[in-house]
């Protein structure tokens, strides 16, 4: 139930709808009970039972006499209206029944009307909260999670809440009140007979709770398996070219089918257990009705029965007893759903409760502009067990271009991850203008940085929308100017809709070189003082590389640049080249100086057959 209370917390902004729902349900339950009680005078008229009509308007004498007061009041007003005419009395009672049922259904609709806004609002807020948390969690969190599992939590698990746990909000007021009002009416009609009902309600609750205990575990298995096959689907869509190229369709199809088969079996077990609640509660209810029929029948036909119950009261009593079954079944289903939804709520809460180790401190500073230098001071960093950077120190003055080179795994891209604070260092400091980046807000830090990665990450939007990520206030002319600097305008201007052209999922309507030039244009449009280029030209063909290299050189003028390079031809003009090997600096200097040293850098150049 803990998870249920956490979900209820999201209903706080919708207090007005909750109050409207509660008030409507109070009247729904009241008129639902009265609609049965109103049958009693009609049955009296039909059975021609003579009523003692009070000479004057009845006086309320306390809660213990409320039954007699209500009965005498109805008899008095009906006699006033009909003048003793049974035909008119029948019409009066029928009108009374119609009005009570009408009011019951009006308030039932209003309760559902308010619940629509409450339930959908809670679901929207939970989904938004989970998505926001996903955006702000560090990259390290997702390196250990399957994308499909995250998608399953944001979609499937939230939907499970909508159809399992949140409908219980409707039951919290309506069904208990219906039972309370009904039992009150039954007590007024026959206290003795009602004692039998109180014996059966706890028995029903106990049996239903036994059924619900295993549902949470079974539901958790279903949701985990859903995350698994969604992950397979996501990986299939992302890697379809490789799957087809290696004739691996059957292998992936087999994995997907195995997962959906497990999901099928888990779902069957879960739903069959869930479906057991309703027939069991109905059967127990019929058992209760049967005992009422037996015991109540004896009260009517037994000696002195007129002191206890008459025929019309007994029929209404049976109707009221049956009226308890519907809310009792709803409550039992609701408790089962709470157990089922608990697993979904836990999986959602796991994301919401995840700590972000990169969260800004309370006293974090807003960084405005870049004035002097970037310093890496004795940096140690590891992703898991082994350090990928060891005692790394480097100073980059403002306006200088520093290139980081080395073999794969030497720690080059890690520098880009650390300066952008996608990860935090284990030991040491990264300083910008003498301030540790951990003491800056992430937003203001990244505002100083332009990032171009090896993989051109673009979105299923127009070229314009993709570039506006760099600067939302940019005009169309600003976008065109940025495209020209990145040597991208030459192909963009020939597209059917120019900068408004949609580039497809991950930019798949464009070539690799075109995508990379767009990502460079995006960084140009942002116009930050510090540029971080993580192997920005490694995915390009020779012609595109030449075009982009010119663009990069233009872009880096008057900017501080950290260039992580695979192709050494792109960094010959760097102010300083830093050669890394296994996380440590082994050489440092300008291109010609390093060539003359005939060390690690010279070997890397020779391996790429670079002409010097």
TrEMBL record:
Q: In which compartments does the protein localize?
A: Cell membrane
Question: Cellular component per GO?
Answer: plasma membrane
Which UniProt keywords are present, listed alphabetically? ATP-binding, Membrane, Nucleotide-binding, Transmembrane, Transmembrane helix, Transport
Q: How does it sit in the membrane?
A: Multi-pass membrane protein
**Listed CDD domains:** ABC_6TM_MsbA_like
Q: What is its main location?
A: membrane
Please give one Gene Ontology molecular function term for this protein: ABC-type oligopeptide transporter activity
Q: List where the protein spans the membrane.
A: 22-47, 89-111, 179-208
- The UniProt record lists the ABC transmembrane type-1 domain at 22-340
Domain (ABC transporter) spans 374-607
Question: What's one Pfam family here?
Answer: ABC_tran
Q: Does the keyword Membrane apply?
A: yes
Q: Report if keyword Amino-acid biosynthesis is assigned.
A: no
- Show the InterPro entries listed in the entry: AAA+_ATPase, ABC1_TM_dom, ABC1_TM_sf, ABC_transporter-like_ATP-bd, ABC_transporter-like_CS, P-loop_NTPase, Type_1_exporter
**Name the UniProt record assigns to this protein:** ABC-type multidrug transport system fused ATPase/permease subunit
Source organism per entry reads Seonamhaeicola aphaedonensis
């Amino acid at each position: 139930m803990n998870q249920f209370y956490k979900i209820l917390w999201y209903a706080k902004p919708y207090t007005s709808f909750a109050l409207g729902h509660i008030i409507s349900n109070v009247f729904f339950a009241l008129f639902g009970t009265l609609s049965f009680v109103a049958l009693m005078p009609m049955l009296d008229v039909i059975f021609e039972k003579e009523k003692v009509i009070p000479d004057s308007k009845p006086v309320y004498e306390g809660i213990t006499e409320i039954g007699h007061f209500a009965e005498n009041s109805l008899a008095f007003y009906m006699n006033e209206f009909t003048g003793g005419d049974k035909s008119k009395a029948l019409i009066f009672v029928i009108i009374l029944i119609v009005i009570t049922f009408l009011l019951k259904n009006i308030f039932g609709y209003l309760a559902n009307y308010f619940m629509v806004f409450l339930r959908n609002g809670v679901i929207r807020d939970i989904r938004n909260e989970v998505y926001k948390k996903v955006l702000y969690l560090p990259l390290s969190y997702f390196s250990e999670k399957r994308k499909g599992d995250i998608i399953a939590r944001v979609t499937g698990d939230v939907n499970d809440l909508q159809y399992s746990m949140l409908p219980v909000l409707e039951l919290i007021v309506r069904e208990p009140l219906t039972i309370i009002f009904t039992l009150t009416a039954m007590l007024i009609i026959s206290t003795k007979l009602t004692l039998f009902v109180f014996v059966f309600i706890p028995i029903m609750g106990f049996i239903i709770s036994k059924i619900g205990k295993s549902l949470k575990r079974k539901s958790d298995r279903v949701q985990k398996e859903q995350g698994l096959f969604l992950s397979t689907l996501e990986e299939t869509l992302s890697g379809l070219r490789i799957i087809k190229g290696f004739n691996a369709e059957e292998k992936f199809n087999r994995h997907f089918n195995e997962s959906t088969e497990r999901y099928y079996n888990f779902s069957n077990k879960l739903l069959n257990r869930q479906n057991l609640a309703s027939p069991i509660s109905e059967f127990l209810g019929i058992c209760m009705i049967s005992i009422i029929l037996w015991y109540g029948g004896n009260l009517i036909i037994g000696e002195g029965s007129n002191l206890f119950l008459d025929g019309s009261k007994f029929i209404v009593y049976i109707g009221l007893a049956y009226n308890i079954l519907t809310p009792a079944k709803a409550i039992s289903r609701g408790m089962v759903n709470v157990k089922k939804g608990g697993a979904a709520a836990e999986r959602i809460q796991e994301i919401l409760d995840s700590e972000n180790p990169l969260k800004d401190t309370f006293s974090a500073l807003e960084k405005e502009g870049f004035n002097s230098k970037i310093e890496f001071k004795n940096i140690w960093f590891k992703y898991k067990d082994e350090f990928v950077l060891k005692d790394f120190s480097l100073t980059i003055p403002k306006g200088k271009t520093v290139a980081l080179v080395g073999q794969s795994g030497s720690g080059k891209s890690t520098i880009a991850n650390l300066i952008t604070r996608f990860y935090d260092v284990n030991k040491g400091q990264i300083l910008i203008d003498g301030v540790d980046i951990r003491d800056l807000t992430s937003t203001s830090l990244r505002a100083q940085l332009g990032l171009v990665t090896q993989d051109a990450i673009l979105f299923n939007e127009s070229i314009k929308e993709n570039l506006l990520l760099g600067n939302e206030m940019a005009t169309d002319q600003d976008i065109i100017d940025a495209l020209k600097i990145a040597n991208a305008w030459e192909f963009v201007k020939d597209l059917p809709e120019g900068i408004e052209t949609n580039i497809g999922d991950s930019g798949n309507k464009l070539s690799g070189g075109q995508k990379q030039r767009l990502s460079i244009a995006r960084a140009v449009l942002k116009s930050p003082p510090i540029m971080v280029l993580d192997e920005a030209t490694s995915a390009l063909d020779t012609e595109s590389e030449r075009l982009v290299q010119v663009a990069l050189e233009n872009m880096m003028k008057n900017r501080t640049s950290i260039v992580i390079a695979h192709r050494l031809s792109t960094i010959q003009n760097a102010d300083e080249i830093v050669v890394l090997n296994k996380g440590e600096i082994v050489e440092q200097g300008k291109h010609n100086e390093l060539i003359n040293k005939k060390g690690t850098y010279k070997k890397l150049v020779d391996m790429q057959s670079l002409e010097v």
